[in-house]
Amino acid sequence: MARFCLPLFGDRSWPAIAVAGGLAALAGCSGFDYRERPAWRTHAEEACLAQNLVHESAYIQPFREITGPGICGLHHPFKVRGLADGTVVLNATETLDCSMIPALDSWVTGVLQPAASARFGEPVTEIKTMGSYNCRGINNQSGANLSEHAFGNAIDIGGFVLRSGREISVMRGWKGGDEQEQAFLREAQAGACGLFTTVLAPGSNVFHYNHIHMDLAMHGSTSRGLRRICKPAPEQALPEPPAHDTLPEPPPVDEDLDIAQGGRPAPQPQEYNGPGASAYLATATPSVTVDPGADRLSESDRDQLSALAGAASGVGR
Ligand SMILES: [Zn+2]
Fold it and tell me: Region annotation Disordered: residue ranges (predicted)?
């Protein structure tokens, strides 16, 4: 049976280690022996399934139950390759619980796409993920409490790709991106804070310098609803999106249509005198119906020609 103690801290947190060490000693560490998966996890999965909140598709497929090691795992995992009806793909197939999928769909359609359209004039078409289900401690620290990742109830987001192929990276863009990139990433985080119960972006701690962590952990309730953790606190004043003209996009040029209107070049006859030439000509020569009498002169034409010939002979040379 796996045992998980108080979280350890990174190399830069020696004072915190001393505090944690003291608390661990008080708790005796063995007090953090999770023998059973908290009941709320199963309830959340089953409620989501009962409400039919996830629909199987080319992008979302149910997967077999994951049991352990320890209390890691989930009863009804899904393999997810795309969100919002496949309008946004993931760069990797992620394993998620039922509850995470509609929350992510809402994030894509209600937060990401409006922000991307306003700030870049184009939608997000791909999300760069950095992990979902993983039986591990918080922040990958051995001995730490289990992360929500250990239950498929979390995802890490490393960046976004726009329709043009432009990439917005959390690591490079959070502080180093241009004004609109920074604002877009902050809007993505702030919007996530209304949909997920834990959102940790760069600046929340040293572990989240390159991704946004989002999960649906149960932190308890307050008088205002579910308790949420959202770090760093969303910025209130973000730069305005750039002004876009309101003219509709010009229609794409239809090259096929242009060629048709210009007329196709007529096929050129090709000479061929090799074997089977007669058969070739019979099939390759354009079919033209010729009146068999068309090469004969009429009576009146013949009379006119005779008169002209007579006149010409009279003139002499
Ligand atoms: Zn994470």
Answer: 234-303
